[in-house]
Amino acid sequence: xxxxxxxxxxxxxxxxxxxxxxxxKDVDFKLVNVDMAKGQHKSPDYLKLQPFGQVPAFQxxxxxxxxxxxxxxxxCDKYANRGNQSLLxxxxxxxAERAQVEQWLEAESQSFxxxxxxxxxxxxxxxxxxxPQDPAAIELNQAKLARVLDVYERRxxxxxxxxxxxxxxxxxxxxxxxxxxxAARKDDMFASRKNVARWWEEISTRPSWKKVVDMYxxxxxx
Length: 222
What we know:
The protein is built from ten helices and four strands; from the N terminus they run E-H-E-H-E-E-H-H-H-H-H-H-H-H. The protein has helices at about 15-25, 45, 70-80, 95-130, 135-155, 170, 175-185, 190, 195-205, 205-220, and strands at about 5, 30, 55-60, 65. The two termini are about 25 Å apart.
């Protein structure tokens, strides 16, 4: 086992984003579950790792980090010669290629994540928590996400993946939220767009992501 420790339940979208990156980079890690139902994420010891009391928290040797996308960038830089070496652009691709990845990673964070996160909560987590769903919120955010996917459809008609013809961190970052939307049988927004559907089929069947999904069922019940 390596020096990397990830804190949080694997079913969390932010935690699973980090786990997928570690799997792609072939980096060994220890996963420490954080029982959020019992408030462990608000304990004094945990707040030393993650001051906002959210998941994940991440440790590697002397580095302690939070925020999943920042953690993924760190993993790609720290372990540049491990596993998939093109997550932040191909070796020799230069600043322009990395900027393409960063551009679409930012699009995921600013455009895809807000509506898809609402849908994940309403469709996947609210039922698990015994909370009522909000049909108005679902309808509103389905419409918002559809507009984002229209942009993706055009882009993916030009390139195999979002940042070019290589799978990158920009694609990986979409996996957790989209997975839960598919699991809730709201996949028509993806399936009805030919290029988006082709892209999702390719990224969601990567061995690294399958390993993360397998961790969902192996985790302690919420």
